[in-house]
Specification:
The chain has 234 residues and is mainly α. The chain has one domain: N-acetyl-b-d-glucoasminidase (Four Helix Bundle (Hemerythrin (Met), subunit A), Up-down Bundle). The chain is built from nine helices and no strands.
Length: 234
Amino acid sequence: MCSVFDAWNELIGAVADVEESSEPFRYDVVNLGREVMAQLAGSFGKNFTDALAENPLDGSRVEKTAAAYATMLEDIDTLVGTDPAFLLGSWIEMARRWGSSASDCVDTGYAAIDGDCPHFYEWNARVQLTTWNPTPINASAVPAGPVDYASKHWNGLIKDYYAERVRLIASQGIRDAARGKALDSDAVDRIKAEHAYNWTVATNKYPDEPTGDYVTTSRTMIQKYSIYFEEACA
């Protein structure tokens, strides 16, 4: 990790010698930074998971670890949003274009989707990236299967699906902590299912063009998270 973090710094340092319009260079900078932050996010996620495992729960610890984890995920979302290779919006727009030429869509049992082929294709594209098996309305849990199997580090998906899921689960943990109890796993299952359903049937737009400057954003993230590497990498 120290070597990869140093390499990210070195790439940023070389930006003056590279044409800023160079997409391969931009991709390498963003992708390397994504990997550094994703590996660090694993530790943040473990802290959150450990906090949720306490019995009874410590509401302050749940809130603190959730905020750190969700913020880290949102920062990754911001970073990858500066390169076209990591945009959820492009994936959804391609799916909808396929649907626009279709004439007969499968009866899904979802009233909001049936008969609307572009929405049907978008729904499939959203489900594939998240629950894999579709989650019906009012489900008590996400259906069994390879949940998160095809998850991607894509702008829009990380923030609105994964970071938001952390915040929703944290809210349940804080409520349970206030009652002096352990985490209500059944309630968490329902929260995950409701969140999955709402996100997969939605049709909100996501950017299909990069947002922000990749160099400025990378430097901001390096400065923000360098504290986690300074001692370990000294």
